[in-house]
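Example (one chain per record):
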Amino acid sequence: MSSLGSVSPWRALGRRRRANVPGGRLHHHKVSVTPEEEAVLVRLAESQGVTVVRLLVESAMSPQGETPAQRRAAMSELLSVHRQLAGIATNVNQLARHANAGEEFPPEARAVLARVRTLAFRIDDVLDGIAKP
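Predicted structure:
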């Protein structure tokens, strides 16, 4: 489970608001902006599919200075790669079944399957790290 409460990294991709946290958020900050600054903030938040508050908090709290949209795009790309790796692993498993039935099996296929599993675990770790604000 991530620091987003009970929200999975995959569900967090579609959220505009930040997830609820146990005990709520007890500290409030008031930020005054000009009408021009407000227009920019609203435009940025809308283009990234988040609220202005989430835009400000996540942008300020991100060590790399990434925006919520950039984080969502990275997570989406990693999820896509993860799905592709899962498909490759399925094909390798089919080869293994074929080999276990007495047919010829390329010796390097075992190493490929092990590498696919290692990459899938690395992707999961990266997703967990990205999901933390």
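Caption: Confidence is low (pLDDT under 50) at residues 1-7.
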